[in-house]
Structure prediction request, 677 residues.
Amino acid sequence: MTVKIFVPKDAAALALGAERVAKVLAGEIETRGIDATIVRNGSRGLHWLEPMVEVETPEGRIAYGPVKASDVASMLGAGLIEGGNHALCLGKTEELPFLKSQTRLTFARCGIVDPLSLSDYRAHDGLKGLERAVTLASADIVAHVTESGLRGRGGAGFPTGIKWKTVLDTPGARKYIVCNADEGDSGTFADRMIMEGDPFVLIEGMAIAGIATGATKGFVYIRSEYPHAIATMTQAVEIAHKAGVLGTSVLGSAHAFDIEIRTGAGAYVCGEETALLNSLEGKRGIVRAKPPLPAHKGLFDCPTVINNVISLASVPIILDKGPIYYKDFGMGRSRGTIPIQIAGNVRHRGLYEAAFGLTLGEIVDDIGGGTASGRPVKAVQVGGPLGAYFPRALFDTPFDYEAFAARDGLIGHAGIVVFDDTADMLKQARFAMEFCAVESCGKCTPCRIGSTRGVEVADKIAQGIEPEKNRELLADLCNTMKFGSLCALGGFTPYPVMSAMTHFPDDFSPAPLVEAAE
Amino acid sequence: MNLHLSSRDIGIRTLDIVSEMKSLAGPLLPILHEIQAEFGYVPQEALPIIARELNLSRAEVHGVVTFYHDYRDHPAGRHVLKLCRAEACQSMGGDQLAERVKSLLGIDFHQTTLDGAVTLEPVYCLGLCSAAPAAMLDGEVHGRLDADAVEGLVAEVRA
Prediction:
């Protein structure tokens, strides 16, 4: 029987040399006349072990990593196809502690299946949610999603079911499902991984959303920095269309639904939902004032569901296994699972899906294994460039929307970036302001002007110019931005700035420089 | 990509692209992407044609082109090296690496080397935060970069 060898095609694996590994492996298989085939899967999420090569054996899949192209010959020599022992052998993939302790609902198939094989998708419980959805009334589908407690995984945490209900209840000749795949936050890559590793789950989720709300057209707006995700999604949509998953009759039902892939153009602010809608319409990515809500007047003024990739990709399992199954995971008002993206200066970097409720300390120290540099952890930024920096003293904060908000932070899109003790938090605060200045859409003054003033004030503090007065000014400026900005870009930039200043005051009290004395 | 097209050629190709894509819903961004893919940048000569065909003002088209970081108003070098400058890469020494690349190439961000070999651009997150510091060279991704690796990349574009 032909042995399957898996070499990931996820961009993180490619960045670490997976393409060369696959090429060398293919050559060796050919020359040695081995009966094996290479499957280009997504990533399992153990990125510090990428490229992680797996081989299918009767006992299950055996993993090897991190594999370099130069390791391939010796791995084959050691009996790779039988799962033979080798210095890089990690044992059974499923038994790896980082994977074994996860609760994979949304990422159940990611890294396991061939991303572009619809039959593989079906064989791993794919399309069951959609098959069920086509038998239900729209309102029932919406009720399922509402009851599951699913909240927007893009960062705002708004209940998905309520959003869908608003669109369902709003009359309109045309309605749209827009998937926000403009994953611009540093430290986040869950959207990219699912689009590259299990694109059909997103397509299925969008089709369910369409049937639930009466929308017949969907757009996936993917950032241009993700060429691999764009390519995979484009192919997956074509395959789904040919197979009748999309089109005039979704899975043979009376529902029509189609998807178009669109590419962003490098504007971070287009991750904000109303700016994204403007961008899709072919305009500048300027934030719209709300109301009207996109659910009432969204894309081309039509009722529009706009959801993050992970929100939509979590819907199929809710429909398949029922809302209670999903809701049983989690804590408080944060139900289900969350794909935590562990990044930056940390040993075990990658994606870890778990029920809400792990503490930040468990994530960083136990799962992440501390810093990659071996130095002490100084700060952890949670939730991207607009997220707060947490010191070790707050490591008991549970991963939950409300718990983070109570500590002046946010979980955002669930990316965490670890910094060791060499980090200068004043520099990080300045960067947050600088980033906001570069990416501001310019519509509202607190964001457009405030961010530029923020950079200047941070520079003055760094130069030791009236530091006390300028710290006060920075706090005042943050207050104005937080309450006066139109969207989260200007409104949340104060989180990293204020948290850095509050938790790391020493970095904001530099010794006065000589130039400042003039 | 031909850098020596006449205004007339640009006009003809632009009109082809616009005619082909104008039936899309919200066609302007896809059109601009296609034009940049064709010419390597968005030529000024293309703007009035797009405006006329989409029934927009030239100012509106200009506004869109200049809003988005991706669209260039002049051709890039033969290679484009994008260095990730966001937090996850900062935490792994991205800033020092950026300084190293700049001094190796003798240019700053948004600049092109005099021999036209390479344009250096900052990018705010490639989604390779678990493989930081990261870069993209002509669409190919590179992770876990160190001083040796960036020297290799620079040598590649200089070759």
In short: The mean pLDDT of chain B is 95.
